[in-house]
Every structure is written in structure tokens, then in C-alpha cells.
Design a protein that fits this description.
574 residues, alpha+beta, Penicillin-binding protein 2a (Domain 2), Beta-lactamase, 2 domains, 21% strand, elongated, cell division
């Protein structure tokens, strides 16, 4: 009885699946398999580019190939600015190890303080990029990479190096840490020097490490080279003498511009104080200015020979025309007093240049049409930006309109007040006198063909003014300290009061001198300006003229210019 009971109990617990339920489950499974198979076929056959793209996005990269920045050289091919290969070290903080011992070892290899370095790493832990050290020379960088620390990588880069250092700093300018021009010629010609970066496709692993270089998309095109007209030996010499003079006279600054008297090519352009472009840790931004191009100032008596061109061209005056400058002062417009340093009495036009007489220049200016001197200055390029030079911040200077001028304004313009010009503009203006009356624009780059220049005055007027300027450097002239042994020299001094908040300052001057050598067949024009000399001497003939003598003498010998004053050589050998 009990066995029968157990069997019936077991039968009551067994419930076989109904046919329709079984078929439904099988159907669901088949449908799911069909959907899965269809999706696989769709992705692999129809939309296979999607999976390929997703995979490539995680492994393929397009990297930039930096273009080599063009070199800047002097006229003889001597390097002034070059780009050298360096390595930028970077890290993925998320991949860097956590143990302090490894991070300390990395910090010491980088030359960093371990504690500060570890703190910096922790601040960047949630980011995927941080610089370790930029622009490291290859050997030390490889030492860091050879440590094999996870998350540390290197990128090849370029760093700008200036072999001439402070000698050409303001002229060349500088680049930033990304090798982009920031000042000077580096900025003015940045696009030309930079070139065009290239691109390449590479395969990397999930940690960003290079697995394989696949193919080149576009090769990098290196930047173009700039060849300047600068003569490096002349540049070194000019900077050395200028720097010494600025220090000797406790001046604020100084600039020297030397150009070829015939073709306007800039042979030297020096500024003091300067800076080391290879180490800018304590750089004073004021030292970045290329004062020879960017600073415009009142030239003073340096303008008198240029104004004399207007007087001689008018036909009213000759070099021997006599003007009475007594008593050495005069009043114009009932309030403006013009003075000479002494009562020079009667002077020829040549004597007016020799003695630098303001009174004599005033009489000449008032005898000319109102705009005669202004027109002469304008034709010589004053008050206009330099034609053949592109430089950041270049000064156009100022040449006020001549309309409705008072007598005082016409007079002051004749002896160098009431206008402003840069040292480069003044040197270029004097090519009118050294080129038979033709003005040639200044240039920093070698010209492919000679420039004839624009005829400003007749050759006779140019020769007459040049002979007048020779008397300035002879014994008794204001610029006698500019004399160069063995060579005839022409020049003009200029001492200008600086303008302050309340007008012209009583004890702040700019000492100027413009020299031409040799006078028989000019080869160089040199403009020197010393800003605010604070020693006992402050006149242009005392401060700037001796600089010209030292620089021009060496320059003429370096340029292999034969002496044109044999008598002077004979006297020197006795």
C-alpha cells in the first residue's frame, strides 16, 4: 500500500513541457542567433569601415614633423642664428609609478628638487600630459629616457641658438620656446624662416608608445635662410667700442649704424646695453629695442650739412658766401632766442659748418623759401618709414608740415630741432652727399642688382657739402677727435638737449656724430648717438667723435680701403 502511494506522489510532481512552449523557446534562441549573425555580417561586410576606424582611432596617429628653422648669416655666410636639435621630455601622470623612490630618481635625473617634483606629479595625476623639461640637449635627455620609467616620453624639437650672443641681439631678435619669432628680424621674417611642418602616420600602442612608422603624409619643408649685409667682424668691433663708450661716459644707452656709402648696405648695427639671447633669465624688456631703427630723436647740428644742401641748391649761396653771425645771438618772433656758443663774427658758409653756427644757419634758412629745407629733408627720406627695411617697431620719425610756419620754426629746422629721425634714417640721408647727389635707401639684405638712387641735389652741391664737412674734423673743428690716421674724414657733430616732461632738460643731452670716410671716395657712413652721457664730457665732439675714430680706422683697414692722406701717414711715422 505504501509503495503505491509513493509512486502516485512522484507522478504528481512531474510536469512534461508542452510542445508549444518548447517550440517558442527554440524560436527565440534561433531569432537571437540570427540577429547576432546578421550583426556580425553587417559589421564585417557592410559596415566594416566602422570597426576599422574605431581600431585605428585607438592605434593610428598623425604626428607633426617640425620644420627646421632657417639660418641667419652675415654677408660672408657666418652664422648669426641657428636651430639645434633638442628633446622635450614629457610624461603621462596617470602612467607614472606611485612609489616615491622611482619619482625621486626621475627628479634627480631632471635636476629638479625631488619633493617639489613629486608634489607637481600628484597635482597632475588626473591628467594625461605634463612637461618634465623642455628643450634638453640630446645626451642628457637620453639619460632620462634610459631610466625606463613608465609614462616618461621624449619629443624631438629645435632650439634657437645665437653664436654671436649680445653683439647682434637686438638686430636679430629672439624666438620663444616654441621657436616662433618674437622680436627683431626673427619676428619680421618669421613666416619665411619657419618653413612648413610635415606630417606622418604612425602606429602606437595603448600607452602611446611608437610601434611602427607607417608612412609619410607630407615632408617638412625647412625655412628659408636670411643672409644679411652685416659684416660680423665690423659688428664685433662696433659693439665693443660702443659698449666701452657707454660705460666710460655713464650713459643710458648708445647706438651705432654703419652703412656702405655707395649702395646703402648696413655693415654694422650695434646697441648698448645689450643682452644675451641664449640666456634670458634676467632679461630687461627695454634691452630688446634695436635703437638704431626704433628710436627717433632730434638730431641737432648733424642736420646742418643736409640743410646746407638746400641753401647751395637755391643758387643764393656758395661755400664762400659770407654771413655776419655777430653778436652770437638773435631773437625771432619776439620771444625765441637763438644762440651760438661764441660770437663767431663773419663766417663763410663753410665756416658756418665748421663752427656749427646756429645763427649762420638761421640767416640762411630765413633767406630761402618757407618750405625749401623741409622739401630737402623729405626728399632724403626723413619723416618716412625706411623703404627697403622691414623691422618691428621701426620709427618713421617726424617732419612737421611747413605750412604757416613761424620764423623760429624755420630756423630751428635748419639746425636740427623740431624734427626727429632714427640713426638709420640719418645715415641713409647722407648717401645723398656720398653718391654725387643721389640718395640710396639703406638695406639689411644684399641687393641682386645695383640701385642707382634718386637724384636729390647736383653732384657739385654734394661735393661742396662733403668738403665743408671735412673742415669739421680738421684741427679747430668741433669734431677733430674723429680724425683717422692716414685717411681724410668728413663729419658733423651734434649735441641735443633731451626733452622731458616740462620741456628741454638742462642737464640731459644726446651726443651725436655722423662721419664719412674716406672723404676722397667715401666708403662708409657711420652714425653714432650716445643717450644721456653723465660724465664731465657730453658734447658730440667729445663723446661720439672718438668712437668714430676708433671704429672707422679699423673698418677701413678691414675693408682694405687704401689711405687717401699720405701726408698724414708720413707725419705719423716721424
Amino acid at each position: 500500500m505504501s509503495r503505491q502511494k509513493d509512486t502516485s506522489s512522484s507522478d504528481s510532481e512531474y510536469h512534461p513541457m508542452s510542445p508549444w512552449r518548447f517550440r517558442f523557446i527554440v524560436f527565440i534562441i534561433l531569432v537571437a542567433m540570427a540577429v547576432l549573425a546578421g550583426r556580425i555580417v553587417y559589421l564585417q561586410v557592410v559596415d566594416h569601415q566602422f570597426l576599422k576606424g574605431q581600431g585605428d582611432a585607438r592605434t593610428l596617429r598623425v604626428e607633426t614633423i617640425d620644420a627646421h628653422r632657417g639660418m641667419i648669416t652675415d654677408r660672408d655666410g657666418e652664422p648669426l642664428a641657428v636651430s639645434t636639435p633638442v628633446v622635450t621630455l614629457w610624461a603621462n601622470p596617470q602612467e607614472l609609478p606611485d612609489d616615491r623612490a622611482t619619482l625621486t630618481r626621475l627628479a634627480k635625473s631632471l635636476g629638479d628638487n625631488p619633493s617639489d617634483f613629486i608634489d607637481r606629479v600628484e597635482r597632475y595625476r588626473k591628467k594625461s600630459f605634463m612637461y618634465l623639461k623642455r628643450q634638453v640637449t640630446p645626451s642628457p635627455a637620453q639619460t632620462v629616457l634610459d631610466l625606463g620609467i613608465a609614462g616618461v616620453y621624449g619629443k624631438h624639437d629645435y632650439k634657437r641658438y645665437y653664436p654671436t650672443g649680445e653683439v647682434t641681439a637686438q638686430l636679430l631678435g629672439v624666438t620663444n620656446i616654441d621657436d616662433k619669432g618674437q622680436e627683431g628680424l626673427e619676428l619680421a621674417y618669421d613666416d619665411y624662416l619657419s618653413g612648413t611642418p610635415g606630417k606622418r602616420r604612425v602606429l602606437k600602442d595603448r600607452k602611446g608608445r611608437l610601434v611602427r612608422d607607417l608612412h609619410l603624409i607630407r615632408d617638412a619643408e625647412p625655412g628659408g635662410d636670411l643672409q644679411l649685409t652685416i659684416n660680423l667682424r665690423l659688428q664685433y668691433m662696433a659693439y665693443r667700442e660702443l659698449k666701452a663708450a657707454v660705460r666710460e661716459h655713464h650713459a643710458d644707452a648708445g647706438t651705432l649704424v654703419m652703412i656702405d656709402a655707395h649702395n646703402g648696405e648696413v655693415l654694422a648695427m650695434a646697441n648698448a646695453p645689450s643682452f644675451n639671447p641664449n640666456n634670458r633669465a634676467n632679461l630687461d624688456p627695454a634691452g630688446l629695442r634695436n635703437r638704431g631703427v626704433t628710436d627717433a630723436f632730434e638730431p641737432g647740428s648733424v642736420m646742418k650739412p643736409l640743410a646746407m644742401c638746400a641753401g647751395l641748391s637755391s643758387g643764393k649761396f656758395t661755400p664762400d658766401t659770407v654771413i655776419d653771425t655777430s653778436p652770437g645771438w638773435m631773437v625771432l618772433d619776439h620771444k625765441y632766442t637763438i644762440k651760438d656758443s661764441l660770437d663767431f663774427g663773419k663766417l663763410t658758409m663753410t665756416g658756418i659748418i665748421t663752427k656749427s653756427s646756429n645763427i649762420g644757419m638761421t640767416h640762411m634758412a630765413l633767406a630761402l623759401p618757407d618750405d625749401a629745407i623741409w622739401n630737402m629733408y623729405s626728399k632724403m627720406g626723413l619723416g618716412q618709414e625706411p623703404e627697403d627695411i622691414t623691422f618691428p617697431g621701426e620709427a618713421a620719425g617726424s617732419l612737421p608740415s611747413p605750412y604757416h610756419w613761424s620764423k623760429a620754426k624755420r630756423a630751428t629746422l635748419a639746425y636740427g630741432y623740431g624734427l626727429s629721425a632714427s640713426a638709420l634714417q640719418l645715415a641713409a640721408a647722407y648717401t645723398t652727399i656720398t653718391n654725387d647727389g643721389r640718395r640710396v635707401p639703406a638695406t639689411l639684405f644684399k641687393r641682386r642688382s645695383p640701385v642707382k638712387g634718386k637724384q636729390i641735389v647736383t653732384p657739385d652741391v654734394a661735393h661742396q657739402v662733403l668738403k665743408m664737412m671735412e673742415t669739421v674734423v680738421e684741427p679747430g673743428g668741433s669734431g677733430y677727435r674723429a680724425a683717422v690716421n692716414g685717411y681724410r674724414v668728413a663729419g658733423k657733430t651734434g649735441t641735443v638737449r633731451k626733452v622731458g616732461v616740462e620741456g628741454y632738460q638742462r642737464k640731459a643731452y644726446r651726443a651725436n656724430f655722423l662721419g664719412i670716410a674716406p672723404a676722397s671716395n667715401p666708403r662708409i657712413i657711420t652714425m653714432i648717438s650716445i643717450d644721456n652721457p653723465k660724465g664731465k664730457e657730453f658734447y658730440g665732439g667729445q663723446v661720439s667723435a672718438p668712437i668714430f675714430a676708433r671704429v672707422a680706422g679699423k673698418a677701413l683697414r678691414l675693408l682694405d680701403v687704401p689711405p687717401d692722406n699720405p701726408h698724414d701717414n708720413a707725419e705719423a711715422t716721424r
